[in-house]
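Components:
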Amino acid sequence: MNPVDVAQAAPVAHDMSLFGLFWQAHFVVKLVMIGLLAASVWCWAIIIDKTLLFARTKRAMDRFEDVFWSGQSLEELFRSLQSRPATGLAAVFVAAMREWKRSFEGSGRSFQSLAQRIDKVLDVTIQREVERLDSRLMILASIGSAGPYIGLFGTVVGIMNSFTAIAASKNTSLAVVAPGIAEALFATAIGLFAAIPAVLAYNKLQSEVGKLQSRLEGFADEFSAILSRQIDERIALAA
Amino acid sequence: MALKLKFNSSEPGFWVSGVGHVLLIAGALIGLSSFHKLPEAEEGIPVEVITDNQLSQITKGDKTAKEVQPTPKPRVERVADKVEERDPGEDKRDTPAPPKRPDDMKVADKEEPVASQAPPPTPPSKPAEVKAEEERKLIEKAEAEALEQAKAAAAKAKAEAEAQAKAKAEAEAKAKAKAEAEAKAKADAEAKRIADAKAKAEAEAKARKEAELAKKLDLSDIRKMLDNKEKNQSSGSTGAEVNKAPSLGTQTGTAAKLSPSMLDALKGDISQQLHNCWNPPVASQTAANPPVATVRIRLNQDGSLSDDPAVLNNNSADTLFRSVADSAIRAARKCSPLKINARYMPYYEDWKSLVINFDPRDV
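Structure:
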């Protein structure tokens, strides 16, 4: 067949705009595209939320440490923090102090394993805090790793579809093949568009979580050292 | 996880991200609404433009040869009395490439269906004869039938005349019928003869055409086509003497090496130089119709004279001619060596002997 004849016989006007690419795509490809776009929205929501949360947590930690090491009495600090829900270092401090108070306020003074109990409480609180920071980061990891595959799935389905169309139309001119492949590749493009920020943000946020966690642990160790010294002094006084 | 659909200032991510994506898509729809087109891909056809000058310079030789040899010769791989131009090759035997159908053969092909529609596929002259014979038979039959009818009618009429009283009238009617039948048969035969003549003329025209086509068809081509199951092989072209280094050119090219226009330019150049050296006799310059000296000069490659210039014409009737001729020869000697442009150097063979006209009016 003469390519000129073909071009004249089949003037298939393909809308090559972004919306045209989406609209002419196969049903499955459309679903994939919509899903990937939603994933992109979600992953950016998580990125923004987490970035803000980490910034806030870091600021709160700085402020708390300033106050903690300013020489203010622990009792006063505890009283001022007790009233409102605490996060970060404050939560760790409040949990440990609560356990400490409980041990002294009861009728029988239970010093024997107070240090161990405080350590346990600190561990649990740190775990809870880290969990709070860490939540939803796995979604980023999932989108980052699965996004390209989902996009590729859309592309493969789209290309399969366009090749069957080519086989049906018995015309292999590039002008006939190209629009279908462009549509199909658009799915991979969206997949990468969602996945690349997800992967980058996941790595960044994960390292932030690690830093905050080590900071919490450091503070907990120091605080538990202070408390155990106090306990030992009390035991010595009592004896 | 449950997305908080109410705006929460501490976790604004969903709304910010959603609005951001909507803006991005809107921007992309506007900004990337049309992709720029690639330049129109048109199939390139290699075209080489050759000038008239170059066309006149096509020499005899081989299309695939590297360069034009000083003496353009076609490639010859074997010595033979008969000159044959074939593909280059050293194969044991010749297997010719499939012959190309000439254009008029294709035309004949197209007209074939019309020919096949014609009733007699057998040679056309014969069917015409057969048809004529058939026609004659048909006419005879018709006549015989008419006669028989007439006879039968006559017999019947006689019998009836004998048998019945109104016999005469009936006999007359019968006779009339007979005459009519006869006339009808005759008319039929005439019509048939005209139709037949037409058919015959047509058949003859067709036969002539086919014969013409058959004349054009080379039977050896058919044999070649039938034999052509093997790859093209060639035992090489033959000629009087072996020439393994053919000149660049075509099999049909016959041009001289130096194109006519270049030769004219060279001649003009040389003639200009010679005229600059020439002092024609004063008398010839003032004469109304001065004699013209035609001088042959032979040149070396450096432009110097390889031989004494010679006057070719002789116009002894004119008293001035001798002095003009002598002065022309002196001019040729004086000008030696002539300046020859380097571009003419490859064509020395073409200009080693030149004929120059010395016309006193040109000075």
